[in-house]
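User: Let's play a game. I give you a shape written as tokens, and you guess the letters that built it. Ready? Here's round one.
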């Protein structure tokens, strides 16, 4: 059996999960912002050294390399994407700016709109018009297209988004515009809305296409650069890339619409959480990922976190492709602590990996949460950090917090403790917003699964705030999002627009649309060396009541075979209505008995089942109270005291640790706060409970 490697690039660290047989080996090294593929190759070289192999031998033995990337997210956060233009139908030049009247905070009259990806001078219109039924009302004026291209070329535009009215019904005009752009603007990246998001509403499609055009050049360039480096060093398989829908797919598939990788890094952790939680008998989870730059929150309910296509706002831009819901907060180990307006603030600015926190000794000058943990004695300056790659230093850390303390009127240690309290409060409030926005889930009924390099350091105290009594910390938690990429299956999730009353469906039209989607799935899975009989197909349909802004999606033929359309018959409308009413009642607690719902689209979510890491569960090993290796002066929320220190390498299944205590793992630190108890289960994972 060959190796499988999962990779997740964060703002501070690049994480690796190496699956060798049934064992998982984790590794972390600092990210390389100047070229993130260098950090990936550095990590692969370290893994190959651990195996006693050359890099070429190691990569030659790899059955799969699966990669989650934050390039798309970083591009939107830093606003350093391609110079982008938009070509749209005459009369719709400013629709992208209206945002359907949406404002993140309706009470803030000073809230500025998001920075424009396509300012008005780069939004141009062409003479054409396609009607809602696909009929051509006004033919495409090709001369107007060429004029628009020349104007964009003069503005040095390198990526063009094209979004025409009702192109998802009849794409002829968009296709022709794409051809003309290729002639007039050689080398420009082209994003056509009927390929990126082939459905209405118009703003959703235009916004998604514009963002795709903005991020496409840096994302495709990065993935191509990484694929080339892997190929040159002996990797002979397809590079698989994590998608926002919770699945993975080939680089070639991602190249068609790079928007699919937006938020793919955090999604890997959610997929891994669902896998681990279900195996351990905890299907309802609050997943929290605290890394070096951000704090990501998500829910797993009944063992899954389904991808939803709709009103997904990311970095203040609407993204209409299917995405697993992950909320992100600017809080992490690198979040900078500062005083503003007489109040203490933490984040959202981060020191990242370069220069990093002050304690990294790499030139950082601003105090961060990692520095606060050093001040509080939670992190050790005596042991190796991040797998022994370097040691933390207290030099200049105390001086930085003394400056904050001077502004606030207390000591450096009190300043560090207050920074700890503030970031804790920020994260707890973020969780409350997340649970409230997702059906009002009560966090008390959830089990917290904490991961990321810093997640276990805060998990139990945060669980206290939220009324949660059980926390899971997987042994692989420092590289858990990377591990999640190995759990994710290759998948394709696409839809096509079709508007009709649910009781008057054209079965021939449904068959044609689903056949088109099945053919695309078969082609791309074949590129990844999968056979049609290996593909599991979920044929889905989108329904709503007339006038509703959002549709409900559900399976008409779950876990079926590709190209098996035998479920389509004259009763399909009745079955769809019954499923819709059942789901609408569950979601909104009412149905409109005298109204016929309408179909607005069909969807095919297909995947192939691939090997996943095996997760063991249970506490069959006899209980043994672990003995601490030493003590350290630390503040775990109740003032400084000599605190027992345990080394994770010394703990085995059955070992128990009673708080207050600190467990030092190779790549993370688990804090067992006062009132909490930790136990190692049969798999070597940690379960923390209140006592």
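Assistant: Ready! My guess for every position:
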């Amino acid at each position: 059996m060959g190796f499988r490697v999962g990779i997740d690039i964060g703002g501070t660290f690049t994480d690796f999960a190496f699956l060798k047989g049934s064992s998982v080996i984790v590794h972390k090294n600092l990210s390389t912002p100047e070229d993130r593929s260098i950090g990936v190759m550095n990590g692969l070289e370290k893994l190959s050294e651990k195996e006693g192999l050359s890099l070429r031998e190691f990569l030659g033995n790899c059955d799969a390399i699966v990669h989650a990337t934050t390039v798309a997210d970083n591009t939107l956060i830093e606003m350093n994407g391609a110079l982008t233009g938009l070509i749209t139908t005459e009369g719709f030049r400013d629709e992208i700016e209206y945002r359907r009247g949406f404002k993140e905070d309706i009470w803030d009259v000073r809230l500025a709109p998001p920075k424009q990806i396509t300012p008005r001078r780069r939004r141009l219109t062409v003479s054409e018009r396609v009607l809602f039924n696909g009929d051509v009302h006004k033919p495409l004026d090709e001369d107007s297209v060429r004029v628009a291209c020349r104007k964009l070329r003069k503005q040095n535009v390198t990526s063009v988004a094209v979004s025409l009215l009702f192109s998802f019904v009849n794409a002829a005009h968009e296709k022709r515009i794409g051809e003309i752009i290729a002639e007039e603007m050689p080398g420009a990246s082209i994003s056509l809305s009927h390929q990126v998001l082939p459905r209405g509403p118009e703003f959703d499609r235009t916004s998604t296409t514009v963002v795709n055009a903005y991020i496409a050049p840096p994302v495709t360039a990065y993935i191509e650069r990484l694929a080339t480096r892997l190929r040159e060093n002996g990797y002979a398989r397809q590079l698989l890339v994590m998608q926002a829908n919770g699945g993975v797919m080939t680089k070639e598939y991602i190249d068609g619409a790079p928007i699919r990788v937006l938020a793919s890094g955090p999604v890997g952790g959610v997929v891994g959480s669902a896998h681990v939680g279900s195996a351990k008998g905890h299907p309802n989870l609050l997943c929290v990922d605290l890394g070096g730059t951000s704090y990501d929150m998500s829910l797993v309910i009944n063992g899954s976190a389904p991808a939803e296509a709709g009103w997904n706002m990311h970095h203040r831009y609407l993204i209409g492709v299917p995405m697993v819901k992950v909320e992100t907060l600017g809080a992490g180990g690198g979040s900078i602590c500062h005083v503003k307006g007489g109040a203490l603030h933490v984040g959202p600015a981060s020191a990242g990996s370069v220069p990093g926190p002050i304690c990294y000794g790499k030139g950082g000058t601003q105090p961060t949460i990692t520095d606060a943990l050093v001040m509080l004695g939670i992190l050790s300056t005596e042991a190796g950090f991040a797998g022994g790659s370097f040691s933390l230093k207290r030099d200049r850390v105390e001086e930085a917090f003394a400056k904050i303390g001077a502004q606030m009127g207390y000591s450096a240690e009190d300043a560090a403790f207050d920074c700890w309290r503030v970031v804790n409060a920020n994260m707890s409030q973020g969780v409350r917003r997340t649970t409230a926005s997702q059906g009002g889930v009560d966090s008390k009924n959830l089990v917290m699964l904490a991961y990321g390099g810093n997640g276990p350091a805060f998990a139990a105290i945060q669980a206290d705030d939220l009324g949660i009594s059980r926390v899971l910390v997987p042994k692989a938690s420092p590289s858990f999002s990377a591990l999640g990429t190995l759990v994710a299956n290759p998948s394709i999730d696409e839809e096509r627009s079709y508007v009709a009353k649910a009781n008057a469906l054209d079965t021939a039209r449904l068959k044609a649309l689903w056949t088109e989607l099945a053919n695309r799935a078969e082609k791309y899975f074949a590129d990844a060396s999968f056979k049609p009989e290996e593909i599991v197909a979920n044929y889905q349909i989108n329904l709503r009541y007339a006038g509703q802004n959002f549709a409900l999606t559900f399976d008409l033929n779950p876990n079926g075979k590709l190209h098996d359309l035998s479920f389509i018959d004259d009763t399909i409308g009745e079955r769809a209505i019954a499923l819709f009413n059942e789901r609408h009642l569950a979601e909104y607690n009412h149905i409109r008995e005298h109204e016929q719902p309408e179909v607005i689209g069909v969807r095919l979510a297909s995947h192939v089942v691939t090997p996943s890491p095996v997760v063991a569960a249970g506490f069959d090993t006899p209980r043994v109270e672990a003995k601490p290796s030493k003590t350290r002066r630390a503040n775990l929320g109740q003032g400084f005291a000599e605190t027992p220190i345990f080394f994770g390498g010394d703990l085995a299944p059955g070992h128990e640790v009673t708080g207050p205590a600190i467990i030092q793992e190779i790549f993370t630190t688990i804090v067992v706060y006062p009132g909490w108890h930790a136990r190692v289960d049969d798999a070597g994972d940690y379960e923390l409970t209140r006592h």
